[in-house]
Amino acid sequence: MFKVDAIIDINQVTVDSTVFHLWLLWKVRMSSSRFLFSNGILSNTLDTPPVKLFLEAQPGAYTTSRTHNNASCFLFWERHMKRLSESIRILSTLAPHLLFKSNNSAIAPPSWTTLPIWQPTLQMLVDDSMQKVMPIAIKERVDCQELAVTTLVSGNLEELNACETIDEDRVGKILDVHVHIETYVPPAFGILGNGAHLALAGYGRHVAIAKYSDWVRIRKSLEKLRPPSVTELLLSNDGNHILEGCVTNFFVVCCKGQDSDDKANGNKYPFEVQTAPLSDGVLPGIIRQVVIEWLEDFATCRKYSGSNRMAINPFQNMEGYIMDKEAISG
């Protein structure tokens, strides 16, 4: 006679395995690692704050790129470096107080200055930091985790005042480079619950054409107004014209009825993709530009300034791109 030590229900095993997988995924999400490399100094992982707290405490221009495909590559790295250098140049001219910092509170930021930023020089400074911190972050990450890499560049007032002239060699002394890396598990795409839930909440950003860390502190007051179910807050200066999200670019995809212009251009079932123009005060985001380039290169589209194209008030200010149904589905 055989002795049965245990009866195994295969359905229960499946459930338990699923629960274990979800628990493991939750464990990985909760155990993210953080690394900070600032001006040649690597901070202890336990001493590295979350990126929001880090940005709140430091002035400067910044950009955040993410890895893809199990941390094997970066998304749009060259574009991020270009946007970072442009943000530094813009802030140094239009809002130096958002870029410069000083260890001496008696030294005020200059009211106006223009830093000649050479993108290759800036990228060399960033690459030098990345080469030192990335191997550590790659070694510490686990499977299914990606890396969020935030590069913050601040202007050093003491070094700026010590320079009679600013040339390519001295830029490295004037700029402080910080690289913050945090591991995370990307949310699954295409799941209804992972979509954005939106609410209109506040005014547009000052010097919106540049990306700067002080916005992280400013938007905290907006975050307090966010309903529990909302995942992103939209900005508007007048309540009628939507600009962008607090941390995202904003597009509207509309299915339009055919009019005479659409028929003349041979567009059947045209779709319209709209986004606020830069002149209204929005960040020239990386994804925003990628989407626009895709529309211009691969879709049968025509661009217009859409003030007279939409009857819905919140979107009256948006630039539009008309495209064929085939372009959307393809």
From TrEMBL:
SUPFAM superfamilies: D-aminoacid aminotransferase-like PLP-dependent enzymes. InterPro entries: Aminotrans_IV (IPR001544), Aminotransferase-like (IPR036038), BCAT-like_C (IPR043132). Pfam families: Aminotran_4. GO terms for molecular function: catalytic activity. This is Uncharacterized protein LOC107475328 isoform X5. The gene is LOC107475328.
